[in-house]
Amino acid sequence: MNAKRQTLNPKGLFFATLLIAGFASVALAQSLTLDSALAKAKDQAPVASAQSELDDAKANLQRTLGDPLLTRPNQVQAQQRADLAQANYDRALYQAQSSIVSAYTQVLEAQIQVRLAQKGLELAAKGVEVAQIRQKNGSGTALDLKNAQNKQADAKTTLSRANDGLALAQTSLRSLVGNFDTLAALPSPPTMPDSQAVQDLFAKSPEVLQGRQRVELANLQVEVLDPSYAAQADINSAKARADQAAAGNKELERGLGIQYDSLYQNLQAANRALAVQQAALANAKETQANDKKRLDSGLISSLAYLQTELSTIQAELAAQQAQDNYLKALYSLYAGGK
């Protein structure tokens, strides 16, 4: 018995092709989020290099621990190498993430600056229109019109520069995370770390870890020496080196402590500025909503409402910059200011 073979008519094939193309377009146009951008940090060369060193240091530690002739100095040195490799990897990752955060937020700011320039141009065009009307009815002069036209020309230049700035910011971000179509807005800002979290970051920094490792090795060299087989002069020299290492590390940690305190103070200041700008944006939005009602009721002119819209976008830009500064300060703290 012959089976019937169904064929798709040309019209059905056309719509099926459109449907597939539509799904493909949606997939390709997915928005890049900050989290997905940060995930690209591991692909950067310094992070990959640090990961290779970390893997090798961990493998070396396992080989060392499995050595039946293991000595204490060899164990300590292998453990120190692995610990330092981990700290260097964390630092490299934070630095890469900090660069991505800076580039990502720059694009968001540039997008608002374009909108601000567009609204400025719209306001300037309205100003030219008003100047023309006033000149015709005798309440304005040719000089007033010329000034309005000059402002419009300046607004066009500003918009062109804003578009160039956006293109440059997008190129910079693509160099770090690859191609993207659109950016998602930033999520709610992370909670500011407390002082204990900052102390933990300080203790895990490569500089602090390396300084403490030098002290540990110097003390170990003293501990493994015994008068039964080592000259007292050698023991005294080892103790002197240990004292020097401790003193040097104390000074190192003092300087680094000041640096981390400064980074934390910058973060606190950015957090306060963010709260101020968010409140200002909320007020600007409320003012715009009220002015829209007044415009609809004929209580204010369309020119006045355009100025209100411009002010709202300015407040939006200030709030975006404040949020961006908070994020950049946070990742700068994570990266030790590097």
Description of the structure:
The protein has 338 residues and is mostly helical. It folds into two domains: 40-185, Up-down Bundle (Outer membrane efflux proteins (OEP)); 191-338, Outer membrane efflux proteins (OEP). 80% of the residues lie in helices and 1% in strands. The protein contains nine helices and two strands; from the N terminus they run αβααααβαααα. The chain has helices at 10-28, 34-38, 45-65, 72-136, 142-177, 195-204, 206-223, 232-296, 302-334; strands at residues 31-32, 182-183. It has a two-stranded parallel sheet. The protein is elongated, with a radius of gyration of 32 Å. The termini are far apart. 23% of the residues are buried.
Features:
338 residues, mainly alpha, Outer membrane efflux proteins (OEP), 2 domains, two-stranded parallel sheet, 80% helix
Separation, N- and C-terminal Cα atoms? 78 Å
Q: Assign a percent range to the helix content.
A: over 70%
Low-confidence stretches: 1-8, 13-29
CATH homologous superfamily classification of the largest domain: Outer membrane efflux proteins (OEP)
CATH classification class of the largest domain: Mainly Alpha
User: Order of strands side by side in the largest beta sheet?
Assistant: 1-2
Number of DSSP strand runs: 2
Q: Overall pLDDT, averaged? A: 91
User: How much of the sequence is in beta strands?
Assistant: under 5%
Domain module tally = 2
Q: What structural category arises from helix and sheet content?
A: mainly alpha
Helix and strand string, N-terminal first?
HEHHHHEHHHH
Overall CATH architecture of the largest domain: Up-down Bundle
Shape: elongated
What is CATH's topology name of the largest domain?
Answer: Outer membrane efflux proteins (OEP)
**Rg to the nearest angstrom?**
32 Å
Question: How many DSSP helices?
Answer: 9
Specify the biggest β-sheet. 2 strands, parallel
